[in-house]
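ok so heres the complex, two chains, lmk if somethin looks off
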Amino acid sequence: MLAKINQKATNVVIFLALLGLSISNLYPMFYMFMNSVKSRTDYYVNPFSVWGLKLTWENYATMVSQFKIFDLFKNSFIISFSSIVLLLCLGIVASYAFAKLRFKGKDVIYLLVLATMFIPVQATIIPLYMMFSKIHLVNTYWAVIFIYVGMFIPEVILLMTSGFRGIPDELIEAAKLDGAGYFDVLRYVIVPMGRPAIILCIIFYFIVTWNDLFSPMILLQSMDKRTVMVALAALLSRYSGDPTFQFAGLVLASIPAILVYAIFQRYIIKGISLGATK
Amino acid sequence: MSTNVTVANRRLKISEGWLSILPVIIILLFIRFYPMVMAVYRSFTNWDGMFRNDWVGLKNYIQIFTDSPFWMLLRNSLVLLLSVPLQVMLGILVAVLLYEEVRGWRFFRTIIYLPQIIAAITIGYLFRVAFSLDGPVNSVLRFLRLDFIAIEWLGNTATALFVLVFCLTWFSIGWQAIVILGGMAKISPEVFEAAKMDGANYWQRTFYVVIPMISRTLEYCIIMSMVWTLTSIFAFIFTITGGGPGYNTSTIDYMIYTKFYQVGRPYGFASALAVILLTIILAITVVEMRVTNKASEWE
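and the predicted structre for the whole thing:
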């Protein structure tokens, strides 16, 4: 009886602790949103106020009409989308080889590929910039896309190889006996069976590439090619700026990643927790 | 005849495997390996990205160690690394809380990971606003009659570093908790039940059951977050302090960034910084793995 009450009390304490932590995560987002729909004066009077305000969408209107945030969205989308397509194409083929094919030197190459994860992009950015400027790729989407593919392909291969290892060899052999060629095996066995790992990669690297700042900031300096994060970072670094306007931009820029997370959070959580056990 | 077929088959297999990974190898050679080798080579030159490219031996390194803010950058990195034990400890705590699966734990798990989804510049900006002179943190402190600590947090090196550590910790708790929870999923529930039966309380269970059984996961968490702290917090520093005042809150990777835009383009110097950063990361990974291997031998 006592143990039961004890257990109940513990559960209440745990619940409250988790609730507190969740509030500490949600409140900043709420604060940002509330202040983005306030006038500048209301913000300076009391940034915490919630009730009895005249809400205004003016900041958002300016973000769209003056700051042209949707043009920036387009740049970010093109870069994220193309990076993901390339990561998937290269990643699926290579992970299939690492997981299911036997060839000489496989283990060594696998380790070498994974080891490149530890090379920080800052350490290579200047030679990369020079290389890209020689082949006229600076200020093009391709520069950033190539960097993302190089940076993230080892992680994609790590995730997918461990996913593909779980596919039974018999399925592949059976498909081959039915006359399936290399690409048929990929299309009819590996991709459908390895779907969880593939979906995880799509979602995860959409969020990562959407939010990234460093590489696009160095490589995309022309105004019409900048990603939304680069443009917002430039806006934020002007200390004189209007916080309510900056909040509006940050809220808009957060929406795509949050939406993706809201829809697919189960995949992400599962993927993150599995990744560690590998 | 039949051996010929198998040999041919094996050949085909070999080439199939190699062809499958060839594109990845080419990409990695161009995007990761070549620039890294070039950085090592350029670190011994006075390269400016254009015409000047003379061999200067160890001059850049000597300058870094004797006549540059390098030691300050290193100190900053060490201070920021303090967030790693904090993150891991809080992560364990949260993971253990989630493990009990109280009502609504799935929802909490989702929210706890949320900061990882928000762009670093957004989080950085929120922290900059929060800790500005008339910002929310100081308002709360003044409301609590704690005016004496309602200071200009970001104007002073020690407190600015504290804000950065706080920010990195807050940002990472969710990731740590989810990864650790994943590690805990491998502990069989019977072990927990047995510990409970033996009268182990909450803290004893955490320290004597959970932590020893997830040492591999913790190793992964620690290495990953150390490397992350040394290489991937550019956007946080950029938005919270801008590396300033001066280089007072910069890290090595942040200085590489400032050198990129500096007049005179000291790219040879920046390359030497890059090589040092690479070496540090390599050393951490190797040492860390050695230590945990030793530790598991002692058990």
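quick notes: Chain A has two domains: 2-56, 59-277. thats all i got rn
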